[in-house]
Specification:
Elements (H helix, E strand, L loop, with lengths): L9 E6 L3 H16 L3 E4 L5 E6 L4 H19 L5 E6 H13 L5 E2 L5 H7 L20 E5 L1 E2 L10 H5 L3 E2 L2 H13 L4 E5 L8 H4 L4 H9 L6 E4 L10 H8 L3 E6 L7 H7 L5 H14 L4 E8 L6 H14 L3 E6 L17 H24 L5 E10 L2 E5 L10 E5 L10 E9 L3 E6 L2
Parallel strand pairs: 1-2, 1-3, 3-4, 4-5, 6-9, 9-10, 10-11, 11-12, 12-13, 16-18
Antiparallel strand pairs: 7-8, 14-15, 14-17, 15-16, 17-18
Helix pairs in contact: 8-9, 12-13
């Protein structure tokens, strides 16, 4: 008679989607380790937890394909159990249970205690800020709020993540101190909307005060802002950015479009004139600032005229960093009631046109950096280069600085002063200043 194996379970956490999911996986892993569970991130394990993304079509496809891949491994006996959590599970749990029943259990975005219980672990409230980081040791994503109260027509995030909920400042300071003690030097602040921070807890927008508190944490050298919303932007944040050296002169502010008719249909609560004025105010307050934005093309009803308005504006604004997405028609969003009337080919063509303009702007801005000195942090060694970033660049999405590994030995996670020797569209080459 075959007896049940006594092997110890190893839990493999697989993360899909955005940096907010990375953060959630890290918290899950910290909780599992606190319950003495063996846990790994995207390695081999006989129990698999897939943290899914359900934001747009491509992300949903990737999530479903990953679930199917691990269900197949379960059927082949390679893994014993498969659990699914995250945004796709939150948004489509009944459908998933019906279509892929061989998953052991599905959990939504707010069901961490239930997921831990299913994994044989206890949820520990006292573990504020305890997590197993999966990023390079020098930086960590730092989630300051969950959910979103904005009514944007194209976005399913409020369906998946609920209403905006700020994390209390004292908890965030404790978490930052714990990260600093582990050698983290850069906090990348994330939320569905940073600029709403504090409204629910403190009855005012309190991002500036939070930044001042985080800047006092010893060991943290850079604090970077991701996902700010343009409407109602708290301008006191710019003052802190200008006066506090630890706050990177960088902001990620997804603007989505600039044609007034599209902005109105998107329910963004702003206009072309207001948005342009806001960016002018940014640059007047912090002239060194690198502004990153993301745009959507092919939104329902986007005419050739709307697109030309967007193109000309991108040329005029000369963003330091820009990404462009094609519109994804998402059920249960306000825009789903509109006809998805721009063809996929036209969407792709428009996105390519925007990115061509941007790569020329990026090349021109990078040429201006040649001969100048910058402080960079080294993230990794790759091939014959050490790869670093300036304060104007976020990991994975922005420019990188490449330093020849034959010329200098640099430790990852350390800061160095470098001089830019040459530049391409999105890469800078540099030598260490001796």
């Amino acid at each position: 008679m075959r007896t049940k194996s006594l092997k110890k379970n190893k839990i493999n956490v697989v993360t899909l989607g955005c940096s907010k999911n990375v953060y959630d996986s890290e918290v899950l892993m910290g909780q599992l380790r606190a319950s003495n569970k063996e846990v790994v991130h995207e390695e081999e394990g006989n129990i698999v937890v897939i943290n899914t993304c359900g934001f747009i079509n491509n992300a949903k496809e990737e999530s479903i394909n990953t679930i199917l891949e691990y269900v197949q491994k379960k059927e082949e006996g390679i893994v014993d159990k498969v659990f699914v959590t995250g945004c796709l599970s939150e948004r489509y749990k009944p459908d998933l249970q019906k279509e892929i029943p061989n998953v052991d259990e599905y959990f939504g975005t707010t069901e961490l205690p239930g997921l831990l219980k299913a994994l044989g672990a206890d949820y520990k409230h006292e573990l504020i800020g305890e997590r197993i980081t999966t990023t390079p040791k020098n930086y960590a994503y730092f989630k300051i709020a969950e959910g979103c109260d904005r009514p944007c027509s194209f976005c399913a995030i409020p369906i998946m993540r609920g209403k905006h909920r700020s994390t209390p400042m004292e908890e965030l300071v404790v978490e930052a101190e714990k990260l600093a003690a582990k050698g983290v030097k850069e906090l990348i602040l994330i939320a569905q909307d940073l600029t709403y921070y504090g409204l629910d807890l403190y009855k005012k927008r309190n991002l500036a005060e939070l930044l001042q508190k985080l800047a006092k944490v010893e060991g943290i050298e850079w604090i970077r802002l991701h996902y700010a919303f343009p409407t109602g932007f708290p301008m006191d944040v710019l003052e802190v950015m200008r006066n506090e050296p630890k706050i990177c002169n960088y902001i990620d502010i997804p603007l989505q479009h600039i044609s007034d008719s599209i902005l109105k249909s998107m329910r963004r609560g702003t206009t072309k004139a207001k948005t342009t004025k806001l960016l002018e105010d940014f640059r007047a307050a912090v002239p060194e600032m690198a502004i990153r934005t993301t745009l959507i093309v092919g939104y329902p009803g986007e005419t050739e005229e709307d697109f030309q308005t967007l193109k000309e504006w991108v040329k005029e604004m000369r963003f330091e960093r820009l990404g462009c997405f094609t519109y994804s028609h998402e059920e249960n969003t306000h825009a789903y009631n509109l006809e998805d009337d721009v063809s996929e080919d036209v969407k792709m063509d428009r996105a390519n046109q925007i990115m061509e303009i941007q790569s020329q702007i990026s090349w021109e801005l990078n040429q201006q950096k040649i001969g100048k000195e910058f402080r960079v942090v080294i993230d990794r060694k790759e091939g014959g280069y050490f790869v670093g970033r300036t304060e104007f660049d976020s990991p994975d999405v922005d420019n990188e600085v490449l330093i020849n590994a034959e010329d200098d030995y640099l430790r990852t996670g350390e800061f160095f002063n470098v001089k830019i020797t040459s530049a391409e569209d999105f890469d800078l080459y540099a030598e260490v200043v001796k």
